[in-house]
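Q: What structure does this chain adopt?
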Amino acid sequence: MEEYLRRNFEVDAKRPSEEALMRWRSAVSVVKNPRRRFRMVADLAKRAEAERKRLKLQEKIRIALYVQKAALQFIAAGNRVGHYKLTKQVSDAGFSIEPDELASIIRAHDAKGVEQHGGVEGLARDICVSLNHGVISSEIPLRQNIYGFNRYAEKPPKGFWMFVWEALQDLTLIILMISAAASMGVGIATEGWPQGMYDGLGIILSVLLVVMITAISDYKQSLQFKDLDKEKNNIIVQVTRDGCRQKVSIYDLVVGDVVHLSIGDQVPADGIFISGYSLSIDESSLSGESEPVDVDKNKPFLLSGTKVQDGSGKMLVTSVGMRTEWGRLMVTLSEGGNDETPLQVKLNGVATIIGKIGLAFAVLTFLVLTARFLVNKTVHHKITHWSSQDASELLNYFATAVIIIVVAVPEGLPLAVTLSLAFAMKKLMADKALVRQLSACETMGSATCICTDKTGTLTTNHMVVNKIWICEQTKTLKRYDDENLLKSLVSESVLNLFLQSIFQNTGSEVVKGKDGRNKIIGTPTETALTEFGLLMGGDFKTYSKEYKILKVEPFNSVRKKMSVLVAIPGDGGVRAFCKGASEIILNMCDKVLNSDGEAVPLSEEHRKSISDVINGFACEALRTLCTAFKDIEDSSNVDTIPEDGYILIAVVGIKDPVRPGVREAVETCLAAGITVRMVTGDNINTAKAIAKECGILTEGGLAIEGPDFRNKTPQEMEEIIPKLQVMARSLPLDKHTLVSQLRNVFKEVVAVTGDGTNDAPALHEADIGLAMGIAGTEVAKENADVIIMDDNFTTIVNVARWGRAVYLNIQKFVQFQLTVNVVALMLNFTSACLTGAAPLTAVQMLWVNLIMDTLGALALATEPPNDGLMKRPPIGRNVNFITGTMWRNIIGQSIYQILVLLVLKFNGKRLLNLEGSDATMTLNTVIFNSFVFCQVFNEINSRDMEKINVLSGLFSSWPFMMVMMSTVGFQIIIVELLGTFAETVPLNKELWLVSVLIGAVSLVIAVILKCIPVAKTEQSKRHHDGYERLPSGPEVV
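A:
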């Protein structure tokens, strides 16, 4: 079976090939309800059509963006005939420009149109907004009414009755209803009204019950996925509103909003550039062109959906939602659905195999029953005499065969994966992890290695300046220090220079919050420096007004520094400031400020002593950076910022404490067989100190710097990677190389964290890409499979725990369902062959089908993870899904159930002392009742496939308890009250006790089975079918 599944039903978790997707679809043959079975499967035809539409639209956009005349003909010709006439609705609202005109100016990159309206300031006047204070909150509903909402057109969600209709598309249920209708007709004709209709009506009511419960379950799943999809697309945008800086959802953005953009952001709407530095935009997602576009006052147009590749800036929103090209493109991107997960595909394969076996048994059962019936008529010389009773008999045989198919084709197997994933995703969302790709939940259970960032993931990201070295003096800062701290150490000119280097060369801003207080906006490092500058008596606004910034090179993970050119007021000079990674800045300097505040040449001895200061700070787990400046004599050249000849001002040590619980989370990973590696851009000594504190760097572990790693040969990498625990001063390319080596050479299942734009390739390459929700850029999030909303390493471990729970829950459900399949098939077939009748009626079998399908999935596929999951090694790649342990349990339980039910069938009357006219009916009821209770107790057995104690945590799993109570409660109602429809009779206390005891014995059988050792294959010696070898015999207890 496993070989067949590997050959036909195996797809990659990320970016599966078209060939693999087509192969498993063509291999699926026995499907009762294609609409339901394939609801969570990508529609390849729709996807291909959507791709064609997208490429066509991209081509039009490319023409619009890069061929100006064609753009005006294509976009503007239909809309801008001379000029737009202002409608009454727009003029009454106080605006001076039509929504379509405003949208077409930006889409067509119409510079003349912008000029006619008075530039960006004129457009701001037309839409009644101040570029300094932004939109007034009370005007938002009016703007949304005139200019629209920032949402793209979506298909209306399917209503509940559509799910009912889909559940009714099951071929076997349709055949059963037709058979039931025919049975009612024949029954009324032969037995009269109302007795003749009970059998058929019972089947119809059972079918409707199955349909309703299935539809309710599917509808609830769809609502969960809809909420998750909405959350996935929700981007938080920085805007200025009511004169203060604030964060809003992309869905709440309106025309007139002033949006702040920085590296890695997605442009949230169409707009026009207000101000900024070195703003470079990647328009490939919109136009397909990979060459970045520089945006400035001369080329001010910004389009929704594009990404900020470099620089920063402010934009005025001019059009939103479906008035943007991105809105139109998003409609095509939503077509076709998401790729199916590997487990969904594999369980489609299992369902196909079992379906074929079930179909064969159903046909065989029908043939045997029909043959016995014909032989019986021939023996009694009635072969030429046919009555409506005979027709009813044959109809019942046919219904029995169809019921066998209903029970034998486990349609719920693939959908149980969806149910389990939906449940896990909902729980993870509550635990601050947003799953963007369904398959990531499964894959995370197999993770053998986590490559994690340091800052913000292992540490709190709440940074404060802790130490400073300036003018050859080191000072440790205390909480109560004030502005006199540095004034007593250095001259006023040096302090002024140092504060300039902080406030001029920064990516942060001091803005007024909603509460009227000043707050610092920026990265934690920038915030810590700016906060220190303010503490030392600096005034952010004064420095911003006095000094004009000429050019900015923002910090990124490749440069590892930020530089600016500023014009010095008064003398017309130009000064460059630079700050960043200590070693890099120190190498750019040839002078340093001495104890007198004078610039003196930087000797080798002096350079070494400063390096010792840097390493001393780093060994205390401080994040170190240097600030430097250079006065430029030739002020005519302001296009480039110098790369050398700087004067070192100070070395700053920033404290970023380790998050509480990280050490315990790392220990949990190690106990679970997951290797944790730290990959950071920080100094190697800082990295090692933090790694030791977290428990990542252990004795014998290797810490290496990025430049050393990337210069290694492939053979050297093979030798060092198994010991590698810390990589410092790394570039994004180093992280990508490490991930590729781990996946391709060492066959590891790798999870990688990332937050920056340049981390996108590594996130894309990894088996599971984990983007940071707080520090992460939109580019990083877009390339990730899971977004860690609180940037916490503990949350990553929780995702791994849930990944393992999903895999194990599906295994439990498959074990339970296959047991029911085997017992139902063998019981009906054996009984039909030997007695000429099936022991369970159509209504009873439908109820059993409901227990094993929808209710079984609800009970077993939604079990929460337990602590034991993280004490086992990871699930290996390409392990057998149906393990030897599962086959042992399935076969053992099946043999017990088949034997006990057949004994009841053939010798039950004698054993139970049943006499009288209703003895047969009573026996059949006991068989049905015992069969159901066998499944109830076997469902409890399936909660743990290896350990004897299956009751642990039973009462904390409320879905399981609800299903158990509902199953038992409804079984009592069926037996005691619905006998007319279900063909049962009420049972006395003794027979109820017998039924329950027969079911309960399966608990004892399970204990015996779990003491039988399972032979391990070569593949599973390291990973026992995905898990470690567990103790057997007395150790289990």
